[in-house]
Amino acid sequence: MVSEASAWHDRLRVNPLIRIIPAFMVRFFAKPYVAGDSLAMAMAVVGKLRKDRGLLSTLDLLAEDIKLPEQAERNLQAYLDMVDAAAALDPADRPTLSLKPSSYTTSPLHEGGDAAGSREAMLQISKKAAAANVDVSVDMEGRYWTDFTLETLRVLHNEGLRNVGCVLQTCLHRTEKDIDELPKGMRVRLVIGIYKEPSEIALTDKPAMKARMLVFAERLLERGHYLEFASHDVAYVRRFLEEVVPRVGATPDQFEVQMLYGVPRDRFLTDMMRQGIKARLYVPFALGWDLAIEYLRRRLDEYPAMMWLVTKNMFWRS
Question: Would the pTM count as exceeding 0.85?
């Protein structure tokens, strides 16, 4: 398992086709999808989305795959600062915070490490956020992190931190069982999953992932979880709203729809909110464009079709 994880990570780091893309070009394509290179810039985006369009946000710091202890400390401090920034807003306008476990350790599981320091950092952030009435979600990463992430959620829940939610990926075959083991009433963001996983453990067909998303959404609502349905596929969002929600009898205070900042779905989101449905955008930012560019290179390694989708969305906006 360790050697397989190391080989997988090495392939991501050295993909020559991704590495030859100039940094300025990566930044050009990424700029519409990244809220800036500071917390202040990200909070300005959060405020503008809420004021101009009525949209809520969830903040994500682009800070995975770190190498030095001072980077882990910087990321922890950044999230503690994010809690303060969110708490300074009116409760109805506050963003939630997305925590990626790999952001707080120099011993990542996908390189055969033990994730030392990660759980302790997320516990510290979550406790401060709970005291400030700020919600956080523990994000899902690649397959090597799934068990650790779910166990961390149980630890946080056992600490009484009901402000903590989770993320589940419908591509993974194991997710059906994982739903059964969630703490009662936990907030859940449901996604198809962007990580490229082997067919033995995950679906590789996107329509199948999306169809499963509707099935799992219904199950989560039936079991009393607050559901964050995260998809850019308008057809499937409509099916969720027009088929799943009425069948379960869910009310607008039991779910919301989430999309990524920069993806052009303005008209659809506006029409949806007019019907009283809550919408939230996932707003990534970095503490420097060099970090954002490295993050985006890794995403292109994992999902090369992203460049085409970005190009398509740019034409859609124009």
Answer: yes
